[in-house]
Amino acid sequence: MKMKNVAIIGTGYVGLTIGACLSDIGHKVFCYDTNSIKLEDIKKGNLPIYEKGLDEIVQKNILNKNLNFTNSISVALNNADICFIAVGTPSNADGTVDETAVNEAIVEIAKNITKYTVIVNKSTVPIGSAQKTEKLIKRLTKVPFDVVSNPEFLRQGSAVYDFLNPERVVIGTSSSNALKNMMELYEPLNLAKEKFLITDEKTSEMIKYASNAFLAVKISYINEIASLAEKIGANIDLVSKGMGMDDRIGSKFLKAGIGFGGSCFPKDMKAIVNIAKNNDVELKIISSALSANAIAKENFAQKILSFYNFNVRGKIFAVWGLSFKPETNDLREAPSIDIIEKLFEYGAIIKAYDPKAVQEAKKIFLDKISYSNSKEETLENASALIILTEWEEFKSPDFNLIQEKLKDKIVFDGRNIFEKEKLKSYNLDYICVGKN
Ligand code: UDX
Question: Which of 21, 99, 104, 426 gives 163 a disulfide partner, CB atoms 3.0 to 4.6 angstroms apart?
């Protein structure tokens, strides 16, 4: 194995995870961030993100000095063979990609590289970014470098596992030297060569957008079919199961619910729609999937409100789950935000529990929500229970306690984690998605 000196620019969900994992497979990693407080917290073991298994490998590799944190980019880049750009690329108001952080990182890298360095776009960047980055850096330094596109496909909640067991590693580059470095970097993972797709930069950048947008289209597709299933009395979970038995469709990302959230799907869909518009192409399916996602969230809020004829002022709702998906503390674009805000509009009171996302939720809802320390605690004085995230620990609750505590004896299940018959046997009413 050829140990590489690696610099990671940005210590968020992607940067911290790939930095820790690269150090865990034997490379010497320096993670750079402008936020010194965040770096100090990480060194002390207080990670800003929850990812299964991450804190262990961070601590282990800090101890063996494979993983280092610095707010000096010259320290991070000193002697670096490979530098990953892993800063945030959020959406602008008009849906285009906010490249501010990426551009700042590029300039800092250009000013601080001292030897041939492979500069890797890990952040999801607009198609054509690699060429743009190369032009910008060429204007700022004479030091040799290559720019590579190497999109991340990590799923939050299984990011460490996904890094160590990738289904695919896509590398977009036209430089054989850069490719050699990248293959040496990934070599310790002992991946079969079929796992690698080596292509040009633009194709690599497009694979990322096209993949995320397609997964989101699948989800919006099943959520639209769910709306119809409810009206005609079909069972969406069985429709999904039946569809998924065709391996051309596949069963994954076909679970009806209250829509998709997260920092990737919404932003990447808006981005590729805008990239297309700038190239006189209209991506109707992806645009429709975005609108359908907003409708999925709205539909679920309307279900709760119309059950009460919109008279929910002062009613207490127990909410289980705030994060955009289980096994993460992340609330970015979480459906829970839109649904809870809609209930607030009609004067509802929310008592919420989430295993990991309460700290993040407080930054969004401030004290508008009261936070419980357990799912059971939310039930005190509550009229109804609302499930917004399908955390494993919600799936086998004490239904007798729910029946005893809820004034209106009803559960609104946005993720179809329960079965109607079961709740009926506990004298509980049940409203969910895509089945009656
Ligand atoms: C996604 C992509 O899956 C990953 O490859 C990419 O690198 C980053 O974005 P992530 O956003 O972490 O990963 O979560 P994911 O598991 O994809 O779920 C995204 C959203 O879709 C969540 O809100 C989830 O609740 C929702 N979802 C997912 C459904 O509503 N139904 C499904 O069947 C699957």
Answer: 21
Active site residue 264: yes
pLDDT of residue 167: 96
Measured CA to CA, the distance from residue 423 to residue 146 in angstroms comes to: 60
Q: Which residue out of 21, 83, 264, 432 is catalytically annotated? A: 264
pLDDT at 1 over 90: no
- Sheet strand arrangement including 316-320: 370-371, 349-353, 316-320, 384-387, 410-413, 429-431
How much is the mean pLDDT over the chain? 97
Q: Which tens digit of pLDDT belongs to each residue from 322-377?
A: 999 999 999 999 999 999 999 999 999 999 999 999 999 999 999 999 999 999 99
pLDDT band at 69 (very low <50, low <70, confident <90, very high): very high
Q: Report the pLDDT value the prediction gives residue 257, as an integer from 0 to 100.
A: 98
Task: Give residue ranges with CB within 6 A of ligand 1.
Answer: 152-156, 212, 215, 219, 253-255, 257, 260-262, 264-265, 324-325
Of the candidates 111, 32, 30, 29, the residue with the CA atom closest to the CA atom of residue 71? 32
Which of 219, 297, 329, 391 is the pocket-test mutation for ligand 1 (most atoms within 8 Å of CB)? 219
List the 169-172 sheet strands across, edge first. 67-70, 28-32, 5-9, 82-85, 117-121, 145-149, 169-172, 196-199
What pLDDT is stored for residue 185 in this prediction? Answer: 98
The pTM of this model reads: 0.95
Which numbered atom of ligand 1 lies nearest the CA of 219? 31
CB 39 within 8 A of CB 70: yes
